[in-house]
Amino acid sequence: METAQEFAETCRVLSQHLAENGRADWAATFERLADRAEEADGPDRVREVASDALALYGGMGSFADLVLLASSSGSREPDERLDRLRSALHRSAVALR
Questions:
Q1: All structural domains of the chain with their residue ranges
Q2: Any alpha helices (H) in the chain, and if so which ranges?
Q3: How far are the Cα atoms of 10, 36, 40, 73 from residue 83, in angstroms, in the given order?
Q4: DSSP designation for 54
Q5: What is the number of other CB atoms lying within 10 angstroms of the CB of residue 30?
Q6: SS3 state of residue 72
Q7: Contact in structure between 70 and 79 (CB atoms under 8 Å)
Q8: Which of 58, 73, 89, 90 is the most exposed place for a label (fewest CB within 10 A)?
Q9: Contacting residues for 60 by C-beta, under 8 A, at least 6 apart
Q10: pTM, full prediction
Q11: DUF6966 domain location, by residue (predicted)?
């Protein structure tokens, strides 16, 4: 069973990856979600945070559409890791909601 702490940790790992790849805007969003998950004072608040995370996946220009610019070496690893983390966060949020 997924916990709010595990969700927050996934948010923080994702935030760090985004910051390292030039997306401080998205990194800040996931840091705030992690903080909210850790501070949630009950299951209703945890579900609210999870729902807010899932809302980031919808619509044009959403988190689901984000692509990191390939490094100068042409490596796809940053985007592949983003895809793995994005999927992990989605699974975590669905489990908490």
A1: 4-96
A2: 4-20, 24-39, 43-55, 77-96
A3: 13, 23, 27, 19
A4: H
A5: 26
A6: coil
A7: yes
A8: 73
A9: none
A10: 0.91
A11: 20-69
Contacts 24+ apart (CB under 8 A), 3-6: 4/37, 4/38, 4/40, 4/46, 4/49, 4/96, 5/37, 5/38, 6/92
Written as six digits, the tokens of 7 are 């969700």
Rounded to an integer, what distance in angstroms lies between the CA atom of residue 28 and that of residue 19? 8
Q: Please, are residues 33 and 97 in contact by the beta-carbon 8 Å criterion?
A: no
Asked if the model's pLDDT at residue 71 lies above 60, the reply is no
For the segment 26-63, what is each residue's pLDDT rounded down to a tens digit? 999 999 999 999 999 999 999 999 999 999 999 888 99
**Start-to-end CA span in the chain (Å):** 12
